[in-house]
Amino acid sequence: MTQTKKRLQQGQPNQWRICGDSHLTPALNHLLGQSEQGNFTMLNAKVTNHCLSSDAQKKRVIDYLQQNQTTGLNRYEADELLNVCHLAARIKALRDEGHQIVRVDETALDLSNRPHKGIGRYFWQGYSVPQNSVKTEVVAL
Q1: Among 58, 57, 53, which Cα is nearest to 96's?
Q2: Where are the domains of the chain?
Q3: pTM more than 0.85
């Protein structure tokens, strides 16, 4: 067994699943001897939402908020459930795109069960076209 294969099977902390469209998938598939339909986990990852781009994170946030309109989402839940480390930035970007998201401050427990005051819980209220994206043309007759 090669060193790479051993390392991939043993796992190391702070490693994430590989995106399904990743160019590394075929290489890992070969190294681990799995079929193309196999589950490509990289090194004991707990997180299933793994792409770290801001667009991928925004999609996970808006999908979650739309599916959980009564419970909403706070920063600690976003980190734990969605692998989104900076929820406020994703919320701002979604608001800029026209999503109506409201914030309610609460006392929330962090991932170590310590209470924190003033943590925002965000709720999706709908969508409207942003004002700055509507272009008007004046046509002279």
Answers
A1: 58
A2: 1-46, 54-129
A3: no
